[in-house]
Amino acid sequence: MDGRCPSHSFAMPDPILARAPLGQDVSYPDSYDPALLFPIDRAANREKLRIPHPWHGDDIWNAYEMSWLTPKGKPVAGVARFTFPADSPRLVESKSFKLYLNSLNEERFEHSGLVRACLARDLAEAAGAPVEVEIDTHIGQSTQLCRPMEGIRIDDADIDVSAYRPSAGLLRCQPDAALVSETLMSDLLKSNCPVTGQPDWGSVQVRYTGPQIDRAALLEYIVSLRRHNEFHEHCVEQMYCDIWQACQPESLLVYARYTRRGGLDINPWRSSRPASVSQVRTVRQ
Fold this sequence. Notes:
Blueprint: E1 39-41, H1 43-46, E2 56-69, E3 75-85, E4 90-92, H2 94-102, H3 112-127, E5 132-136, E6 152-153, E7 179-192, E8 199-211, H4 215-223, H5 232-247, E9 251-258, E10 264-271
Parallel strand pairs: 6-7
Antiparallel strand pairs: 1-4, 2-3, 2-10, 3-5, 7-8, 8-9, 9-10
């Protein structure tokens, strides 16, 4: 190494994304405007995947910079959780979501229930499916502890890495693998925003029943997403499909918790069966 940082070119692959607010200089809104939401069809990305079956899952967004006004003009602060079903036809681009939430800052509402109804209506229209909205305005009265994602942490595996693009061929099961039910996790997930190329950092959990997966190989595969330019939701779907095709489990759940950007974090999960996931924040969130 000569001390210089290697360059990695970035090109936006989708002309539709060129119209998204992300990566552009935009003025922050001073009044409520649901037209700020920029929906993106899921279908185009899913056409690239070998989706084995209909899946279950959600995209869970947490918003930590929620505020609006009472009828008397007094600010209210809160945190919110938005649950978009995985079978909704569209996802929402993150900067447009942030701008939309900020457009509520000077709006007056009688109570938080009306804020919730407004959000649910606008987001359902953007996503093409009902969106669950929860708002907590008692943020000074409760404490939420952070902890690692559940599962056996595989990050200490001694691996040689040369692939930094998604490489499903790295995945494999143990030789003569026994049938197991286990949960594995890694904090080494990184992908990149497809609009700006900025890094997205996260942790990922793989919960499955099936032939035992080679843990070092799984870690190599997770690391191979390091230069992948795709939205959080699509990265989870690609991991799910690749693991399913390579390891043929009886059941599978893939869940990622990404770090916060612009007051929002995104936490998608996909599962072969109905399931639930922990909502506890990781330390990096």
